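Internal QA ticket QA-208
Title: Verify multi-chain structure generation after dependency bump
Assignee: T.L.

Test input:
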Amino acid sequence: MTQTKKVGILGATGTVGQRFILLLADHPIFAIHALGASSRSAGKPYSSAVKWKQNVPIPAHVAGMTVKACVAEEFAECDVVFSGLDADVAGDIEMAFLKADLAVFSNAKNYRRDPAVPLIVPTVNPSHFDLIPYQRTLHNLKKGFIITNANCSTTGLVVPLKALQDAFGPLSQVLVHTQQAISGAGYPGVPSLDILDNIVPYISGEEEKMEWEAAKILGGVSADAKAFEPLSNTVVSATCTRVPVLDGHLESVSVKFANGTPSIEEVYQVLDRYTSEAQALKCHSAPEKPILVTRDADRPQPRLDRELLKGQAVTVGRVRECPVLGIKFVLLLHNTILGAAGSSVLNAEIAVAKGLI
Amino acid sequence: MTQTKKVGILGATGTVGQRFILLLADHPIFAIHALGASSRSAGKPYSSAVKWKQNVPIPAHVAGMTVKACVAEEFAECDVVFSGLDADVAGDIEMAFLKADLAVFSNAKNYRRDPAVPLIVPTVNPSHFDLIPYQRTLHNLKKGFIITNANCSTTGLVVPLKALQDAFGPLSQVLVHTQQAISGAGYPGVPSLDILDNIVPYISGEEEKMEWEAAKILGGVSADAKAFEPLSNTVVSATCTRVPVLDGHLESVSVKFANGTPSIEEVYQVLDRYTSEAQALKCHSAPEKPILVTRDADRPQPRLDRELLKGQAVTVGRVRECPVLGIKFVLLLHNTILGAAGSSVLNAEIAVAKGLI
Amino acid sequence: MTQTKKVGILGATGTVGQRFILLLADHPIFAIHALGASSRSAGKPYSSAVKWKQNVPIPAHVAGMTVKACVAEEFAECDVVFSGLDADVAGDIEMAFLKADLAVFSNAKNYRRDPAVPLIVPTVNPSHFDLIPYQRTLHNLKKGFIITNANCSTTGLVVPLKALQDAFGPLSQVLVHTQQAISGAGYPGVPSLDILDNIVPYISGEEEKMEWEAAKILGGVSADAKAFEPLSNTVVSATCTRVPVLDGHLESVSVKFANGTPSIEEVYQVLDRYTSEAQALKCHSAPEKPILVTRDADRPQPRLDRELLKGQAVTVGRVRECPVLGIKFVLLLHNTILGAAGSSVLNAEIAVAKGLI
Amino acid sequence: MTQTKKVGILGATGTVGQRFILLLADHPIFAIHALGASSRSAGKPYSSAVKWKQNVPIPAHVAGMTVKACVAEEFAECDVVFSGLDADVAGDIEMAFLKADLAVFSNAKNYRRDPAVPLIVPTVNPSHFDLIPYQRTLHNLKKGFIITNANCSTTGLVVPLKALQDAFGPLSQVLVHTQQAISGAGYPGVPSLDILDNIVPYISGEEEKMEWEAAKILGGVSADAKAFEPLSNTVVSATCTRVPVLDGHLESVSVKFANGTPSIEEVYQVLDRYTSEAQALKCHSAPEKPILVTRDADRPQPRLDRELLKGQAVTVGRVRECPVLGIKFVLLLHNTILGAAGSSVLNAEIAVAKGLI
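Actual output:
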């Protein structure tokens, strides 16, 4: 039995922070120890500081915790620090925590491109943890490190891409169109006047993230474990839209295989059988399987499928021939679970299982 | 001044039929003369037979008209017959009307593939009216004929494709993803339990229609005006989804040009300057221009842009490089105006201008 | 430990039937034994017969069960029969089941007004089970009986009314306005074109039901247990509307007390402390308390509060002075749990605890 | 023919300001002369300063106008100043404009309670303009004055109440429940996460406004035209909720008549026949009739009825007996037209017709 780890949550009052609290409230190895938020919230009981927007109450033992400022000294006892901070403040705060020798799991985009920071989707590339020893050397750390998880829409995309790449070899072209839920924009986020009876075919910076993140995540690690080796021959084109859905990003994907197009049935089989190190390590938050295949003609659907397998799997359906690229399919992920806090928690469980924490 | 033409509307109580009534209520050359619906409605005043779902009242002179059965004798005086019938009954009824030497403008899919029936998007291929003399010969008609308009989502797609093809030569690959409004499914149509806080990534038969209709519409007519010459080298791949939007189909399109990719600015210019025979003929329902270009980063949006230019134009925005195919953009059309009844009315105006009616 | 009871579900493929299956899938004393639906579904495996619209999968042991026709012989082994049948067929079928000496728990309106059929909201008037011996005499039954639960919106209303009436004496006037979720209309139910960006201020028959059902439920049973004694001095006025919400009916209530208006704080206390026989009997599905009081200024809200206490409690908030009637407040209930299947299941648990089954 | 009046719009970039621009763009007697907004917008062309959220483009001649700061000197040439300012800044700015001898028509709540400021719903109490001479005396003005229009939900309520009061004598009790559109909260206003699949049963300050404003509007003016005489015997109780509807407030109303309850048919007749000074003066924006009666069982509905009669009428339906108070009905008004900018414009037209401008 693993010993319980103390965890801190930065940005605890935000949308991602609230999801962290739900995921960690009854966790077998992580115990919520400290909550961090802006100076406006610091000093208040959590229940007063937060605009709680979940459909279950604030866990009783969390409601009364006093919110702290996001300074490393306040989190010195934490074995794990989860960050749901916004990008505009995450850069400085996360760096200060790293330098304080803390283990930081970030949802922000700030360090995703850093050549020494792993960008990990837990059911895709936990092997990128191999760079942690090198990262510690760079920053002269004993136990601290920082890893990030991917943008929500990238996360959903790379899980089936990884399965397909492993089975059928490199993908030369990927064209993806997303329909993203409003919860992805945080709170207050998307004004209702912008999205009721409407779609906004633009999310600032989102398409660029999808187009480069995939290459790092689906790529490997150098033999000396000092560098990432992003894919160089997989081109991704993304179009991202915001839709009037509460939770769950739907993505339509067309892919071209460098070595020839498999059959539809082969694709279904490969997706269905895919498994990852998160399953092998028997991590608490790992879904039974990374990909849930549906063969119903009109699925996946956000409202019906987003909660399946605890929101930690990607549901894939409608695999069919793409007259242009070869194969096309539709996927769905829960954007605030697998697409954000859930990935972080699972990444931390993997890190514990690997002895990094 | 053109003499007023008497028009009949088949399927007058349905969603498309109601739109016909709005478009024709104050029309300068068409006068509503007869309304046809199912036997259940026949004999009733229109206002009793219809579940009117428009946000303006039933035009006063239409409300009291007696609905007729959809039999040709009842429409013998009509110069033009617009059909908003469902596909399950449109086949027989429209054929009977054709054989009665009536001019039928159909929204149904039944005769779209017929080698002697033009499939016309009014701002794209009114030249396909050239086949009418041949069609009349086949059916031994004097003044009657049948033409169809395209599926709503196809209609939006082919307008900018036509502009691009005219300017830059053939398109070898087109990948399109639609987000289609619920009004496209008629009434009662999509159950609210299926679409509130949800997306349905499937519309029966829709993807197939988009993939083949474009080739017929964008192709030419043989020199003897007895056959269509569909494009054979343009491959289309479509993914169609239903979204919680009342009116307005949004489509994300990526295209590959056979002869090299133009610049983004060239594409914007070509779309903006595109004009069609409908404009040249100064048809009443023709929009000022077939394509309305927006350069705002987050447009077009269904709720804000669907009514522009009387709902008869396609709004195109977000033209940008597609790393996979070359150029990508987003378009919007009003699915029950340009995508259905509006196209039919404009097609009929063109037919009048060409002397076919 | 109570012995496991075999249960049948009539109307198993409908919206209420699906909710029954979720509530009973892992029930400690009820085991799903037989599923009944229309002749169109009979003979098929449940998973083929149903259009499953829940956000969790069909329970594995139910998916393969063969659906039966709704005839009593097929349910002869059932200790309990839950009916989610529509009113147009419920009358005959439920009567046939009753005459076959089965214990029927109906959600339909057909027998609610019957002078020998209890209309029971489990956290309000389980005392009305006292009429069962008399009902058995009437129909010459040994173990069978029929009870109904109330209309969904009535159910939410009477729980706090009962608490107030018990504490402060009779209510002379009640004015209630409902905002009812679309799931209350079943599937396909409300067309999306009717409810997106809209409200429908009318639900057929609903206002009448609310206005008379409350009197029977809040009334007593005669001393000889052969008749109900509905309230005669409580006048209810209801306005019912349909809103674009998936689940959860919100009701705004103003009440006038015959014996003088209590203070706001007294009302809060009484609502908070209210408890019922369902709690005393420690029934499995009984919520911790029948009424969940919220003092937040902007609660209850359907999306945030409908799932609290397993959806079996009524959440009440915004208690304040009503300048016209005395006291006003807002309540919320989950219409397909407490408002339908959940009440039935809890009623059956009470019946078991009372030794009636 | 009235001479054209120059008008200024304060808060021109906000939701109400945008509606003013649409209403005034082609107005026969008002010409948009100056636009005022916050210092952040001042100096910019209107099209750059505004986040335009209407479904028609910015009128061409307005798009290029330079936005001014809200200081009186900049509006000195304006015959009429419409204010769509938020309450937090409206108090000081509107007073400064008044003292500069300008005619101010305010939508803000700040001066509604002022004993010398008329609170006018144009189809209800234009007689309150009689206090303007007295107001001018107080402030030592020649041509300036200030009037306010009512809160949107009050506006819809008082129109039928006025008709009923005129016909049947005083109303002793009024109970009203509102379902208010999101556009009433401005932009960005209601976060989508708060209102999709949800209702918020609380709008800060709204219930209080409805409860007192009605008494001032429905009351009279003293014989010396120096004071208002609010109703003292009409008690109003309001419950206000926010719903996922774009435009259009729906209100359910129960009323008690001091002198006995009229029949349903009498109520319908009285509502239908009601007319006001705005009609008598033939004002451009006056609807054909102040109240549009519908006898359809399920109307009025926001999406279908809000635009009728240019959004300047109140639609009333579902008149029926209220078992508690006597009569109940449902009404609908367009909250940003009749409920805000449209009332202001019509008030100004009345003022011109009365020779006050």
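Spot checks passed. The first strand of chain D starts at residue 5 and ends at 10.
Status: verified.
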